[in-house]
Write a structure and sequence with these properties.
Helices cover 40% and strands 15% of the residues. By secondary structure, it is of the alpha/beta class. The protein has a single domain, classed as Glycerol-3-phosphate (1)-acyltransferase. It binds (2R)-2-hydroxy-3-(phosphonooxy)propyl hexadecanoate (NKO). It comes from Pseudaquabacterium pictum.
Length: 213
């Protein structure tokens, strides 16, 4: 076993410890078909929880989209995303001569499944920020790929932005019904609908907390 494999197992173990096991597949079963999972983003553990919730045989072909500026700055961050999780890096700064979605398109052409956090950054509010447009463009180009919304609950309290040491607390990942781009659907409408599909998966107890504080 390589060091990267061992790190993967260790992180999956930690994720299971703090989440009390698997995800809740409410709107779709885990399945070997090409998918783009999209979720709210509050913590580095978000990706690990989704990954740990997948059946082991689907993990190798399911890849996180990672911000290039953040995850290639520093040897450990680069190693863990490249070697352990086979991340697809995306540039968050726009340049004129390059399509930021190109690496994602290539991965999808390859048949890989992706996990995207369409807010593009971690937020510490209860509800997700508006979604960036990448998800819409990918939905247009890859109509055959299933778009699966997911809500990750409570992780911000395990490892909020700025914290290094995780605090054990129960977390859940809930997967919803696939969302499809409507024929001729407007970009803004689709992105708002996709975000609403994620928010709708928030467990009731946690909705109460969000609205209370
Ligand atoms: C227990 C020790 C925890 C170790 C954590 C290992 C984490 C591996 C995480 C791989 C994550 C890949 C997905 C990242 C998605 C992404 O790239 O979102 C942007 C944020 O990331 C950083 O940007 P920001 O929130 O703006 O600081």
């Amino acid at each position: 076993m390589t060091r990267a494999d061992a790190m993967g197992l260790l992180l999956a173990f930690i994720a299971r410890l703090i989440t009390g096991a698997q995800g809740h597949w409410k709107g779709c079963p885990p399945k070997a078909e090409q998918r783009i999972y999209f979720a709210n983003h509050q913590s580095h553990l978000d990706w690990v929880l989704i990954w740990a919730a997948l059946p082991r045989e689907l993990r190798a072909s399911t890849r996180p989209i990672a911000a290039r500026d953040y995850w290639t700055a520093g040897r450990f961050k680069h190693w863990i995303t490249r070697e352990v999780f086979n991340a697809v890096y995306v540039s968050r700064q726009r340049t004129d001569d390059q399509d930021p979605l190109e690496p994602l398109v290539e991965a999808l052409r390859n048949g890989d499944s992706l996990v995207i956090f369409p807010e593009g950054t971690r937020s510490n509010k209860g509800l997700p920020q508006p979604f960036k447009s990448g998800l819409y463009h990918l939905a247009q180009q890859f109509p055959q790929v299933q778009l699966i919304p997911a809500w990750i609950d409570n992780v911000q309290r395990v490892m909020p932005k700025g914290e290094v040491v995780p605090v054990p607390i129960l977390c859940t990942v809930t997967f919803g019904t696939p969302v499809a781009l409507g024929e001729g659907e407007d970009k803004r409408d689709f992105l708002a609908r996709a975000r609403a599909a994620v928010v709708a998966l928030q467990p009731v107890e946690s909705q109460l907390q969000t609205s209370a504080g």
